[in-house]
Predict the 3D structure of the following.
Amino acid sequence: GKEAAEIAADGSVPADKFIWHAVTRAVGNVKNQGAELIQPI
């Protein structure tokens, strides 16, 4: 069988394929909800 690392490497998307956006600390808190979390900073 395949090792977990090999499975993850085969099935994952490389980091350079993502578009990264800065976010506020509020995004990382599960208690926060609302449209203000997706506003550009």
Q: What stands out?
A: The two ends are 46 Å apart (CA to CA). Residues 14-41 form one domain. The mean pLDDT is 88. Residues 4 and 10 are 10 Å apart (CA to CA).
